[in-house]
Amino acid sequence: MGLSGAYGRTDDDQSVRVIHSYLDAGGTLLDTGDFYGAGHNEQLIARALRHRNRDDVVLSVKFGAVLAPGRFPAGFDGRPAAVRNSLTYSLQRLGTDHVDIYRPARLDRSVPIEDTVGAIAELVDMGYVRHIGLSEVGAETIRRAGAVAPISDLQIEYSLLSRGIEDEILATCRELGIGITAYGVLSRGLIGGSGSNDGGRAIQPRFQGANREHNDALVARLQGMADAKGSSLAQLAIAWVAAQGDDIVPVVGPRRAEQVASMIGSTGITLDGDDLARIDALIPPGAARGDRYPAQFMADLDSER
């Protein structure tokens, strides 16, 4: 998403170098959405993979977000016909004959989740999709979806500043054998970022006024621990998410090639039980101020109900 203008202007040549740097370092998961840049991101990935082995990459694709001219959000469409139509266009833009994980970006409240997941299951049977995923849905929806077809993983925000899944959603996924791909592990740059409010950050509640001051102060509490570990704040935050379980994969979003090595460096950081307890004491669950999305987008999150 960050390579398609979500956080300010980007350069496609540089973005391709970012993807190549990641793949060359051993990365495999590429997460995208057909609405990232109104299809731009899928085309960018296709360009980056043009001379690569497709089987070396796991393509995770979100669909269902409806855009109006100007790329303004206009709802979500989870109808079976829309599922099939969306995948057809994604396969063309990505230049591939299948995607590895296909998931609705948000719950379409006008369509039973059983219908949406059932349509993806048909695409699995046809060979166009390998695995079914979900995104930002709550425990009840996860159970309903899992009763229709096997669910590989749930993509949901999870970080030191966003720990809501620990209340019920994480336990439900573990009960059902569903993994987590955790996005927002750096809280859109609040942790270890440049400090700018470029792009989508300008409307994020956690970046506004007193909320920003409070959240910056929270993050600063970690600096001493990061120094002791010989890591950056960003590396420590990524390592914390990874340390929550082998069933959790942090999704990171470098925008420059030099950031790739830094983020991958987080895999070399070990956090034991004492470290995790200390981090909890420094930043307790629920300590961040401000919702993780603006009010109109929070209303779209089944995971928050």
UniProtKB/TrEMBL annotation:
UniProt keyword annotations, A-Z: Oxidoreductase
Keyword field contains Ion transport: no
Cellular component annotations (GO), alphabetically ordered: cytoplasm
SUPFAM superfamilies membership: NAD(P)-linked oxidoreductase
Gene Ontology molecular function terms on file: oxidoreductase activity
Domain of life: Bacteria
One family name in Pfam for this protein: Aldo_ket_red
Keyword Oxidoreductase annotated: yes
Domain NADP-dependent oxidoreductase positions: 1-283
Name of this chain's protein: Aldo/keto reductase
The organism of origin for this protein: Jiangella aurantiaca
